[in-house]
Amino acid sequence: MALLQISEPGESPAPHERKLAVGIDLGTTNSLVATVRSSVPEVLLDEAGRALLPSAVRYSADGEPVVGHDALAAQAEDPSNTIVSVKRFMGRTAEEARASAAAYDFVDAPGMVRLRTAQGDLSPVEVSSHILARLRSRAEAALGDELVGAVITVPAYFDDAQRQATRDAARLAGLNVLRLLNEPTAAAIAYGLENAAEGVYAVYDLGGGTFDVSILRLTKGVFEVVATGGDTALGGDDFDALIARHIAGAIAGSDAWSRHDRRALLVAARAARERLSDADETTVGFQLQDGTLVDAPLTREQFEAMAAPLVARTLDAARRALRDANLTPAEVRGVVMVGGATRMPLVRRAVGELFGTTPLTDLDPDQVVALGAALQANLLAGNRSPGEDWLLLDVIPLSLGLETMGGLVERIIPRNSTIPVARAQEFTTFKDGQGAMSIHVVQGERELVSACRSLARFELRGIPPMVAGAARIRVTFQVDADGLLGVTAREQSTGVEASVTVKPSYGLSDDEITRMLADSIDQADADARARMLREQQVEARQLVDSVRAALAADGDLLDTQERARVDQALVDAEAAAHSEDVDAVRAAVHALSEATEAFAARRMDRSIRQALSGRKLDELT
Ligand code: ADP
Ligand code: MG
User: Fold this and answer.
1) How far is the centre of ligand 2, averaged over its atoms, from the C-alpha of 74 (Å)?
2) Which residues are the active-site residues?
3) Which pTM was predicted?
4) Which one GO biological process term can you cite for this protein (predicted)?
């Protein structure tokens, strides 16, 4: 399904008619804003001529928050009031945030974590909005007018909660969000892949805090993301942490270092790692709070030995994405490198080896995402130039479905479906006269609800009384262009309807996504067995219910002996419905059907007689 409905390419509007739209890369480490001028995307610079705005905000008891370089410079001296990598906490609970081992005062709050600062408890949405507001004023200063809107990028792996949080942050910053765009997709746009020959491309994005890999397929100017994978908790920061552990490990008393000292070490570790992208050796130099100077040597060889397992993890994720797309590395024509951490020679080598091709590094890996977002924003604002008539397709990372009887998942939208997407399926009632149906929306790859993630629950009420199985309830899942899910349930005969927009209270952690995918593969056999068992159990319960109803209506058709046999079979089937032995359940269902065969035939006769009684023969022909 097309994401953008593109009409005939027209003339470029005159400059004064152009609507000012920007693309924003709201990064974990660095954020950027870009726009399209004279058909060329360019990053907008700050007063000092810098493109990158460090995603750091420092809060003090009074005064405006300090955003960017100045905040970053203060991080060692005022760590708990200087928030960095806030993107990791977007849409997350305090529990999840604490698991990230970041050194902040996390405050439990309904829905999303809050961070304790000198300016009070702030949500990650507020902190992000301060970064976005800074980029907005940078853009308005550079362009000399108000913006009509912005395209904001998010990692492909961001779930609904994280996307919603990003939208909220933009709104708080006074930005009109034209669209959220997956970062790897934006990078592909920046590289102009839509003009390239047809084929499959991979986008490998290793930033400060997240890793994304996407597989894109190009056909006739249309490109589609056919698979995504990655790790929302793996980036340059983790490489810094390895160096820090290595350095601290060699210094006596480092266990007792203050927050300040640990931050100072991390800052020095990052600088050293960046230098090692060009140099063979360097030193990790910083000052402890007590005045001690540390100056530890580090070679690229040492660093690469430490870093290899992290790089291997990114390659595993890349292989998984390829498998999802049913592709081999050799079928990938080119690999786009995105994110500052792809400057590490080890990463470039490893990626080149996996795909058997030299990765594309022509565009500044820090800027590609913002440049692509600017092109997209320009298009959405209506400033299209001739030839810019491409379509764009994204996918959902994990399957979406519903809970059905027996705790089973009915998958409605499979993982890696391109969005926007709408799928509908009909369900029916389980019991006679059932007046309400509860809808439980889940996400994940497993057959059992208990192994998936619960996204939302709602009830459809006012279903007219009908026998079990007669009601027709159409459930529609709709994922919009931003990856947000809306679910609607509608009873077809009366038109009663209920719906929910999924805005889950917290997000999936990266580990959860990885675990859910790995489990779905490991557990496929067990799941299939469990599904069979649950289905048999549901069948047993349904049969028990209907035999009970039949006995109540027409019990007089049975003599005492027959009745005793049916009652016994009922008791057995009821007990079997709770058994974990699929064969036992099946046998009990079979026995109950057999025991009630004659009874069912007699009921049929009776109902036919009733239907015919009092009618003349000619009315029936
Ligand atoms: P994000 O998308 O998370 O905001 P960026 O794409 O800006 O991240 O990448 C930031 C990361 O890139 C940091 O971990 C930084 O250390 C790393 N980086 C920047 N320059 C270099 C370099 N020359 N060598 C190695 N890593 C680098
Ligand atoms: Mg990035």
Assistant:
1) 23
2) 25, 87, 183, 205
3) 0.64
4) iron-sulfur cluster assembly
Q: What is the largest CA-CA distance in the chain?
A: 110
- The pLDDT value recorded for residue 427 is 87
Atom of ligand 1 minimally distant from the CA of 273: 25
Coil, strand or helix: which one is 235?
A: coil
Q: Which of 166-170, 175-179, 279-283, 382-386 has the lowest mean pLDDT?
A: 382-386
124 and 167 assigned to the same domain: yes
Reported as a single tens digit per residue, the pLDDT across 322-333 is 999 999 999 999
Determine whether the shortest distance from the Cβ of 339 to ligand 1 is under 6 A: yes
Q: How confident is the model at residue 505 (pLDDT cuts 50, 70, 90)?
A: very low
- Give every CB contact of residue 67 below 8 A, 6+ residues apart in sequence: 53, 56, 57, 58, 130, 131, 133, 134
For residues 139 and 112, membership in a common domain is answered with yes
Ligand 1 near 205 CB (within 6 A): no
| Per-residue model confidence as pLDDT tens digits over 289-326 | 999 999 999 999 999 999 999 999 999 999 999 999 99
Of the residues 328, 362, 394, the one at which a domain ends: 394
Q: Do residues 216 and 312 share a domain?
A: yes
Query: 45 pLDDT exceeds 90?
Result: yes
Q: Report the CATH number that the domain containing residue 504 is assigned in CATH.
A: 2.60.34.10
Choose one of 242, 343, 346, 510 to mutate for the ligand 1 pocket test, by most ligand atoms within 8 angstroms of C-beta: 343
Cα 40 to middle of ligand 1, angstroms? 25
Can you spell out the DSSP letters for 14-63?
PGGG---EEEEEE-SSEEEEEEEETTEEEEPP-TTS---EESEEE--SSS
- CA-nearest residue for atom 12, ligand 1, is 340
pLDDT tens profile 77-127: 888 899 998 998 998 888 888 877 677 888 888 778 899 999 889 999 999
Under 8 Å between Cβ of 216 and 224: yes
pLDDT band at 453 (very low <50, low <70, confident <90, very high): confident
Domain extent, residue 586, equals: 523-612
**Does ligand 1 have an atom closer than 6 angstroms to the CB of 209?**
yes
66 lies in the same domain as 202: yes
CA of 72 to the centre of ligand 1 (A): 14
367 lines ligand 1 (CB under 6 A): no
Total structural domains within the chain: 3
Q: Which ligand is nearest to the CA of 30?
A: 1
- Domain CATH number, residue 170: 3.30.420.40
Q: Do 539 and 436 belong together in one domain?
A: no
CA distance 557 to 599: 7
Q: What would the DSSP string read from start to end of 264-293?
A: HHHHHHHHHHHHTTT-SEEEEEEE-TTS-E
Q: Are residues 329 and 380 in the same domain?
A: yes
- Rounded distance, CA 115 to CA 103, Å? 10
For the chain, how far is it from start to end, CA to CA, in angstroms?
Answer: 52
Residue at 270 is within a domain: no
443 found inside a domain = yes
Rounded Cα gap, residues 540 and 533, in angstroms = 11
Quote the pLDDT of residue 395: 65
pLDDT confidence of residue 24: 98
**Ligand 1 site, residue 27, Cβ cutoff 6 A:** yes
Question: Do residues 153 and 203 both lie within one domain?
Answer: yes
